[in-house]
């Protein structure tokens, strides 16, 4: 039976925690959990089962790939043994890839059981495909319990023990991530391999900017030598030089001596060179002295540095080879900070130093020394051995660059903050440092999405909706059929009149659309009476009310043909992303466009663009998420480089369909410049529906439109400008109108939780069914499961709706309501949230409560 557990209580070994040493760490290892994946039980599965009993492992067995994946997600076993002797029931490699694609499976040990090698076969097949798929080890079938038990013992003291220690490294990484000292780890060749957040905060550089680059690229260059950097370089070089001698790649007369060679002495003072007269002012920091005095000071500084090294300011421990001393580090802002540093060489492969760990803490006098350090750097720049005139020319060039008037706005902001810091108290200066750190990040409007282990529904929604793809599996084919990725042939809509002279809508359709101007309009009734094609009829009525045909210069017949063509390319087989959803978004868009503050900001071009964007925003949607398409290696994902795959396809296909035939080309009579303006607005709004940019769009709207003292009523203060251009709405700048249009279609696209309760519940059921179908297909095809909680056998729909409202809906509609004044929507949102909360408190997982008995 799938998932049957055995505790092995009668085994020869006691099922108790074992103590494992990992350097200075003492760990307790719980009894090992094993999972056997065999399509049917036979002598081999029995052999491993009884071996697990003897070894006191907790064991479970699964008979299908899907059952195995469910057990992995539920219990995270340490060891998985997969039957690879036959591919009749499942592919062992596909099972392995599915497991490797799950969360926390990186350190799981996977063993594949293969058939015996025939005696008449001279060459054994390569096991490389199995290792590439993710297996750790291969076991040639042998059903004897003693052989299986010995295999488990080897695994327990080898791969499983190593895996357990690697998992423990997560604790060390967590400590590094949160410690206050700046930590940098480099390779033997000084290529940066890791920096912790404290290092990022201290220098202003992000990890992405540093990792993979050599340390000197980030250092002070010539200035580093003036502040003790050579001693650090010598410590590194000493370790590298000893290693090269041990490898025999560098001659060394002392190679046969057992005692380690002492660190090399400090380099001799650089040769004295005459300095050009034009360097007098820049080459020394008291630039009025003559050459003889300047050279004398240079020798004094060199002597002082050597004395500091001898007296212990720069210390090299002969036994540990640690280097301790003071470093001056140049930050991204150009500021130089003083740090107390310890550099520790770490022995690695081959017994040689493979890493250098640098631990740094700031000096207490950084706040008062900053300006003096800058002055001293300027004074020493001309007296460096590489030549004062060269540095003078370089500094002059840099001065010219910094004096240029072409500055990015963010550079001006940073310069203003830097200037403010100089005259601010220490507490304010530290706060401004934090501001500068935030400003240097790449995503200013997107929140840092940490782990949400307490809410797996929110975690899965974020992972599934806000990422374009999790990870690409090697060897994936393009598994989706072409009609998922390319526009289908136009479908005939039976209920839509073909020409403008045809009869109008049927009476039932007219009745269903009678209240389409109200928020509680029942789109599902319209879907029913139009035979699942509500977009044409609703579109004709909405577009007529906004004068779209007059603006575009097209006939109603052309508009009808275009709507029929667009609706035909929505997939009626999708439970959620079909033409009913498009009609629902169109209805919400039209409702928002009638609000006074929205009307005051947008002109007719904006309104037409919003209505068209709502109509086409999900055309040819395959009923799968962007992450699914990227993981599956679909043609669309390849075409759009795994970035905004579906949204780019919707926008591109909409214009391809529109211009394919003059009969349905609503844009054919527009002026070229007007068409380009309208096209750009439509594309921008369709792309705004991509969920990876959700928080960016919402935060920009809040900070620009809903900021205190701002808003549409005071448009001259919004984003820096009043609106008097020809294309301006009556009171909003172009930037404000852009943010408003993005927010409008975003709210229209995911407004289901703000609909009346019956409509909200129906939409929740439809989107859940689409996610269930995606999860089923991912498991069936061995793809990473993007949203594991959306498993139809275990998902709680109330929990998923609560998480969606908490994480995506509440803040966005609070902001939109503050701008557009939507009390009805907010009332429905509160009622629906309370409904889902009540269902969850009753531990119900369904859409609706059971009928009363």
TrEMBL record:
Zn(2+) 2 binds at residue 618. GO terms for molecular function: 3',5'-cyclic-AMP phosphodiesterase activity; metal ion binding. Residues 274-289, 305-314 have a biased composition (Acidic residues). Its cofactor is a divalent metal cation. SUPFAM superfamilies: Formin homology 2 domain (FH2 domain), HD-domain/PDEase-like, PYP-like sensor domain (PAS domain). The active site is at residue 577. GO terms for biological process: regulation of DNA-templated transcription; signal transduction. Residues 221-318, 712-732 are annotated as: Disordered. Residues 259-273 have a biased composition (Pro residues). Residues 501-843 form the PDEase domain. PROSITE patterns: PAS, PDEASE_I_1, PDEASE_I_2. Zn(2+) 1 binds at residues 581, 617-618, 749. CDD domains: HDc, PAS. It comes from the Eukaryota. It is an enzyme of class 3 (hydrolase). Keywords: cAMP, Hydrolase, Metal-binding. Residues 719-728 have a biased composition (Gly residues). Pathway: Purine metabolism; 3',5'-cyclic AMP degradation; AMP from 3',5'-cyclic AMP: step 1/1. Binds 2 divalent metal cations per subunit. Site 1 may preferentially bind zinc ions, while site 2 has a preference for magnesium and/or manganese ions. It holds the Pfam family PDE8A_N. Its EC number is 3.1.4.-. Belongs to the cyclic nucleotide phosphodiesterase family. PDE8 subfamily. This is Phosphodiesterase. It comes from Petromyzon marinus. The lineage of its organism: Eukaryota, Metazoa, Chordata, Craniata, Vertebrata. The gene is LOC116954942.
């Amino acid at each position: 039976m799938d998932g049957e557990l055995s505790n092995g209580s009668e085994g020869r070994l006691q099922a108790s925690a074992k103590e494992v040493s990992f350097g200075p760490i003492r760990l307790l290892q719980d009894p090992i959990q094993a999972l056997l994946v065999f399509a049917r039980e036979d002598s081999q599965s029995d052999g491993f089962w009884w071996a697990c009993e003897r070894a006191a492992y907790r064991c479970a067995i699964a008979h299908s790939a899907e059952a195995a994946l469910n057990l992995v997600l539920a219990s995270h076993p340490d060891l998985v043994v997969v039957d690879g002797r036959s591919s009749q029931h499942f592919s062992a490699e596909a099972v392995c890839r599915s497991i490797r694609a799950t969360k926390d499976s990186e350190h799981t040990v996977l063993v594949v059981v293969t058939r015996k090698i025939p005696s008449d076969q001279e060459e054994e097949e390569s096991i490389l495909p199995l290792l590439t798929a993710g297996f750790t080890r291969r076991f040639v079938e042998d059903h004897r319990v003693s052989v299986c038990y010995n295999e488990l013992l080897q695994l327990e003291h080898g791969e499983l023990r190593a895996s357990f220690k690697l998992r423990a490294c997560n604790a060390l990484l967590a400590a590094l991530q949160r410690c206050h000292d700046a930590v940098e780890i480099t390779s033997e060749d000084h290529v940066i391999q890791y920096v912790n957040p404290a290092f990022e905060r201290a220098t202003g550089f992000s990890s992405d900017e540093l990792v993979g680059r050599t340390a000197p690229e980030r250092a002070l260059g010539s200035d580093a030598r003036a502040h003790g950097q050579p001693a650090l370089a010598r410590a590194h070089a000493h370790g590298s030089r000893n290693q090269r001698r041990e490898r025999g790649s560098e001659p060394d007369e002392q190679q046969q001596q057992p005692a380690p060679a002492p660190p090399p002495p400090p380099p001799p003072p650089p040769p004295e060179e005459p300095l050009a007269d034009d360097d007098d002012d820049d080459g020394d920091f008291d630039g009025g002295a003559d050459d003889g005095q300047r050279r004398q000071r240079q020798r004094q500084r060199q002597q002082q540095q050597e004395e500091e090294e001898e007296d212990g300011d720069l210390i090299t421990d002969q036994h540990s080879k640690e280097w301790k001393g003071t470093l001056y580090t140049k930050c991204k802002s150009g500021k130089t900070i003083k740090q107390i540093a310890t550099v520790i060489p770490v022995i690695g492969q081959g017994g040689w130093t493979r890493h250098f760990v640098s631990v740094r803490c700031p000096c207490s006098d950084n706040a008062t020394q900053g300006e003096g350090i800058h002055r001293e750097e300027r004074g020493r720049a001309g007296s460096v051995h590489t030549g004062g005139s060269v540095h003078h020319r370089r500094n002059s060039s840099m001065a010219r660059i910094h004096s240029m008037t072409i500055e990015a706005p963010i550079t001006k902001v940073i310069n203003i903050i830097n200037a403010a810091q100089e005259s601010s108290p220490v507490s304010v200066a530290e706060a401004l440092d934090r501001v500068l750190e935030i400003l240097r990040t790449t995503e200013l409007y997107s929140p840092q999405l940490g782990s949400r282990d307490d809410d797996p529904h929110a975690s899965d929604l974020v992972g599934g909706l806000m990422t374009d793809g999790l990870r690409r599996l090697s060897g994936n084919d393009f598994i989706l059929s072409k009609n998922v990725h390319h526009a289908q042939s136009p479908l005939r809509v039976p209920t839509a009149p073909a020409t403008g002279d045809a009869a109008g809508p049927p009476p039932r359709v007219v009745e269903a659309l009678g209240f389409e101007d109200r928020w509680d309009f029942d789109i599902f009734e319209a879907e029913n009476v139009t035979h699942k094609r509500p977009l044409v009829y609703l579109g004709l009525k909405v577009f007529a009310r906004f004068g779209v045909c007059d603006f575009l210069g097209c006939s109603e017949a052309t508009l009808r043909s275009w709507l029929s063509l667009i609706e035909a390319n929505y997939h009626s087989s999708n439970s959620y992303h079909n033409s009913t959803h498009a009609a629902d978004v169109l209805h919400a868009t039209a409702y928002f466009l009638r609000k006074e503050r929205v009307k005051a900001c947008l002109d007719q071009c904006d309104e037409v663009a919003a209505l068209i964007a709502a109509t086409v925003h999900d055309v040819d949607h395959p009923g799968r998420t962007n992450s699914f398409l990227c993981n599956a290696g679909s043609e669309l994902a390849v075409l759009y480089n795994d970035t905004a795959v579906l949204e780019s396809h919707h926008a591109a296909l909409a214009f391809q369909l529109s211009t394919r035939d003059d009969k349905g080309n609503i844009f054919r009579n527009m002026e070229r410049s007007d068409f380009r303006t309208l096209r750009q607005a439509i594309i921008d709004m369709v792309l705004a529906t991509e969920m990876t940019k959700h928080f960016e769009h919402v935060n920009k709207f809040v900070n620009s439109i809903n900021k205190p003292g701002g808003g549409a009523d005071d448009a001259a203060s919004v984003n820096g400008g009043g609106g008097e251009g020809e294309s301006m709405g009556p009171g909003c700048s172009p930037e404000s109108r852009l943010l408003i249009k993005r927010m409008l279609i975003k709210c229209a696209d995911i407004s289901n939780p703000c609909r009346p309760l019956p409509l909200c519940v129906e939409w929740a059921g439809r989107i859940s069914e689409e996610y269930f179908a995606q999860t089923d297909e991912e498991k069936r095809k061995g793809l990473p499961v993007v949203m594991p909680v959306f498993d139809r056998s275990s998902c709680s729909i109330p929990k998923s709706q609560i998480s969606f409202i908490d994480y995506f809906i509440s803040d966005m509609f609070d902001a939109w309501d503050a701008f557009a004044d939507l009390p009805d929507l907010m009332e429905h949102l509160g009622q629906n949230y309370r409904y889902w909360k009540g269902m969850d408190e009753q531990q119900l997982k369904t859409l609706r409560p059971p009928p009363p008995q």
